[in-house]
Design a protein that fits this description.
Elements: H1 22-38, E1 43-47, H2 50-58, E2 63-69, E3 74-79, H3 81-87, E4 100-106, H4 110-123, E5 129-133, H5 137-162, E6 185-187, H6 204-218, H7 221-224, E7 233-237, H8 244-255, E8 259-263, H9 274-289, E9 292-297, H10 300-303, H11 316-329, E10 338-344, H12 352-355, E11 362-365, H13 371-381, H14 393-398, H15 405-421, H16 429-441, H17 452-470, E12 478-482, E13 492-495, H18 505-526, H19 534-549, H20 578-605, H21 607-620, E14 622-624, H22 625-632, H23 640-645
Parallel strand pairs: 1-4, 2-5, 7-10, 7-11, 8-9, 9-10
Antiparallel strand pairs: 2-3, 3-4, 6-8, 12-13, 12-14
Helix pairs in contact: 6-8, 9-11, 13-15, 15-16, 17-18, 17-21, 18-19, 18-20, 19-20
Length: 668
């Protein structure tokens, strides 16, 4: 599956309206507290009785200024340093540091206090200034009710935030009361960038089947006039990266109808009942926009079979969400004009009620692209890549078997990056080969320290794979062998796997023999084995077990298969007894031993060629198909890919191979 990059359809080009944020409230509170701190008189105050106030004036002579508030009937007396030190000796007050100390007392009346002040002046007890002030009614009222107004305002603001309505393209706001609303993204006619079937390469069968849905949405009367019903839903099933989501977007773009996109995991939250509420809200929005498409990606997040692991505990919230989804798809209510598309790569674990007719009426398999489809996918992704004129797209498709559309897009992007890294003006075939090697094997690690003995062992091992596979009919054709470390591997061999629809037993045996050839070469040439064959042994063991247990290709257990396609087999039990398990182990060991001895036999008969191939690897580190052909002659088996595209060489003839000292090595 391929895709031409587009801009985000949900991006708003203009500036939206001003929205009051919670940070503004934090700023207002901060400024209020800062104002109180800045405009404070930097004073300390002590509340005293009126009799003590008279004492401080008459006996101690400690008041040097009096301020009378006639409205509040309060008198403030500013203290001298000596009296302030005595009254505030246990506090942080420090005389002479700019801090004013004062006492405050309630007075019976301003007139009586005025007479008293006059007596103090006549007796000499007080000689300072006297000030009279009045409080503003509005100011007094404001400072009395402002804290309550602030608290009420913050509470109203937070409640509005929590109960905020839906926002965006059909999505919900971020409040706690909007948690039950759908988070689906809406793509409608207002979006300028659309994806059509032209942006989708390959998958001709899947596109043909899904084009019917487009016709249903464009011309529904064409089908309903004959008594037919528009299908409720279609399930896109396939491996990751094959373009299921892109295919669903192309349907919306071709049909020119609103398109709701949502992930299966978006339905489930920590709150009970949220998933079912979101399903109801999603279908409510879809009915308002009908005709439209609702796309649920990774539906297995909520569509897993109910009660499958009852003993292990069930997720009630997920099952309630699934129940609501089943009801909305085929309940009493009518969803006319609403088509449900869903995508998953785990169709075997979905609930059977979800898969029945009337809900997901059809399943569309989106498989990995074959050779012709990969050619089309490369053409789509290379539209904006500056490639060399002699670039062979057919060859690139042959070198990427088993690649999905996403993998091919990654190859094209990686090749462009490699070309730019080497300051090239266009992307060449060598850049694509390096990109494929980088993705499959990993980055070269020439700095890894390898001894000469280890390097020779790796060369013998990889040459063993190349030698044996050259003489086996069903072995995958060799492309390249290297002993340069890549990723976790110390050596690697690139092959072109045959894209067969069915695999004969002999093909499996040939592949096992080719995998075991590396260890067999070490055993014959070095007289010992190493841990380098770990990956080979793992693959061989799984292959032999599959032949015996799944494919019924064993002599002692013919025509028996313990494979469970429903995926409901338990991991704690086996479908066979101990006696049968012993036979299975014996048959697996026999198959592996036979192919190991077969690999040794082939290596013995071509020992000289194997030795030359190993020496070539040691001197050059990388060899291609032509190097093997120079040693063993043309391969008598023709691959299926050669039959499709015609037999042709995949690489140019390499230059003369030289050793470290520069002496030419004869390879004939």
């Amino acid at each position: 599956m391929a895709f031409s990059p587009n801009s985000n359809p949900n991006k708003n080009s203009g500036k939206g309206p001003f929205r009051f944020s919670l940070w503004w409230m934090y700023g207002i509170i901060f400024l209020f507290l800062a104002g109180i701190f800045i405009f404070d008189t930097n004073s300390v105050t002590k509340k005293v009785s009126y009799s003590d106030f008279e004492k401080y004036v008459e006996a101690d002579h400690g008041i040097n200024k009096i301020v009378v508030n006639t409205d509040k009937k309060i008198v403030e007396g500013f203290l001298t340093d000596s009296l302030a030190s005595a009254l505030f000796q246990n506090s942080s007050y420090a005389p002479g540091k700019g801090t004013l100390a004062k006492v405050e007392a309630n007075i019976p009346s301003a007139d009586k206090l005025a007479d008293k002040i006059e007596q103090w002046r006549q007796s000499g007890a007080f000689t300072g200034n006297v000030e009279y002030e009045q409080s503003s009614p509005l100011s007094s009222l404001f400072w009395s009710f402002f804290p309550f107004i602030l608290i009420i305002g913050v509470w109203i603001f937070l409640m509005r935030r929590m109960s905020g309505g839906a926002g965006g393209n059909g999505g919900a706001g971020g409040g706690i009361f909007s948690v039950g609303k759908s988070k689906a993204m809406l793509y409608d006619n207002k979006n300028s960038d659309k994806i059509t079937f032209r942006d989708v390469a390959g998958l001709s069968e899947a596109k043909t089947e899904i084009e019917e849905i487009v016709e249903f949405l464009k011309n529904p009367k064409r089908y309903t006039n004959l008594g037919g019903k528009i299908p409720k839903g279609a399930l896109l099933v396939g491996p990751p990266g094959t373009g299921k989501t892109l295919l669903a977007k192309a349907v919306a773009g071709e049909a020119d109808v609103p398109f709701f996109s949502m992930s299966g995991s978006d339905f489930v939250e920590m709150f009970v009942g949220v998933g079912a509420s979101r399903v109801r809200d999603l279908f409510r929005q879809a009915k308002e926009k009908a005709p439209c498409i609702v796309f649920i990606d990774e539906i297995d997040a909520v569509g897993r079979a109910r009660g499958k692991n009852a003993g292990m505990g069930a997720n009630d919230e997920r099952e309630n969400t699934l129940n609501q989804l089943l009801t909305e798809m085929d309940g009493f209510g009518s969803n006319s004009g609403v088509i449900i598309l869903a995508a998953t790569n785990r169709a075997d674990i979905l609930d059977k009620a979800l898969m029945r007719a009337g809900r997901f009426d059809r399943q569309i398999y989106v498989d990995l692209p074959d050779l012709p489809d990969r050619v089309e996918i490369f053409k789509v992704h290379l539209r904006k890549v500056k490639t060399a004129p002699d670039l062979d797209i057919d060859l690139l498709a042959r070198q990427t078997p088993g690649f999905s559309g996403a993998d091919i897009a990654n190859v094209c992007n990686e090749a462009a990056l490699i070309a730019a890294r080497h300051n090239k003006t266009m992307v060449t075939k060598e850049d694509f080969n390096a990109a494929v090697d980088r993705i499959i094997g990993g980055l070269e690690k020439r700095s890894k320290i390898i001894t000469d003995a280890e390097k020779r062992s790796i060369a013998i091992h990889e040459a063993g794979h190349a030698t044996v596979s050259w003489f086996l009919e069903y072995a995958n054709p060799l492309v390249k062998v290297t002993i340069v470390p890549r990723g976790k591997a110390l050596g690697a061999a690139w092959y072109l796997p045959e894209e067969r629809q069915i695999t004969p037993a002999q093909a499996l045996l040939d592949q096992m023999c080719s995998l075991l050839a590396g260890r067999a070469a070490e055993d014959l040439t070095l007289g010992r084995t190493s841990t380098g064959a770990l990956n080979d042994l793992e693959r061989v063991t799984k292959m032999a077990y599959a032949m015996v247990v799944y494919y019924g290709m064993s002599e002692r257990l013919p025509n028996l298969s313990y494979y469970d396609s429903s995926g409901q087999d338990s991991m704690f039990t086996k479908p066979f007894g101990d006696a049968r398990a012993k036979i299975i182990d014996e048959e697996v060991s026999r198959l592996i031993e036979e192919q190991y001895e077969r690999a040794k036999t082939i290596l013995r008969s071509h020992a000289e060629g194997h030795q030359k191939l190993a020496e070539t690897l040691l001197s050059r580190e990388v060899i291609f198909t032509e190097d093997v052909e120079l040693i063993f002659g043309p391969r008598q088996w023709t691959s299926r890919t050669d039959e499709i595209f015609g037999a042709k060489k995949t690489e140019p003839t390499p230059p003369p191979i030289e050793d470290v000292e520069g002496t030419e090595i004869t390879t004939e």
